[in-house]
Amino acid sequence: MFAGLILAGGAGRRFGGPKAWALLPDGRTFLEACAAALHGAGAVRVAATLPPGSVDPQIPGLNPLPLPEPGLDMFASLRTGLDRLIQSDDWQVLAVLPVDHPLVTAETVAALAAAEGQAVIPSYRGKHGHPIVIAREVVGSIVCGALTGPTMREVLKAVGAVDLEVDDPGVTANCNTPAALSEALKAANFDF
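Structure (tokenized):
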């Protein structure tokens, strides 16, 4: 069984506001799309770090985790979510999905969660993407401070992450600006 963590706590300055609330052409927020991918893949629990002071987005099955202060880096935001999720013992692996990757499919998340390894990184046409999947043991090592980053790149290297080639352009579609979202939708012929 696996859980999901959506990293959505940033201010989204390049997007014009928090990307959690950015909209896809079908009217869903990035946060809703990411939660749907994780739930659709079978996640037993899904949490999302959100900007400080955020109200509950009222997404069924989503546990909102507003960050304690603005300006936290990605690894500090990650740790906030991991600290909360490690308290539940109903999962063995965790899919970590940045909110600016709202085009990832549930099938991809399920394949990553089922893959063997302490950490799994998706690749599309040889390019790494998101979400990454990490074993509960790795989560515990981050929470207790044995794996300190300062970014996930160092953690993934330290635990010997494996690549999983997937047929999903959403894993590399980093929609961190409106222009990047538009380009990703065109490049992959996404149809909403």
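Strands lie at 2-7, 45-50, 62-66, 93-98, 119-124, 127-128, 132-135, 162-165. The first helix runs from residue 30 to 40.
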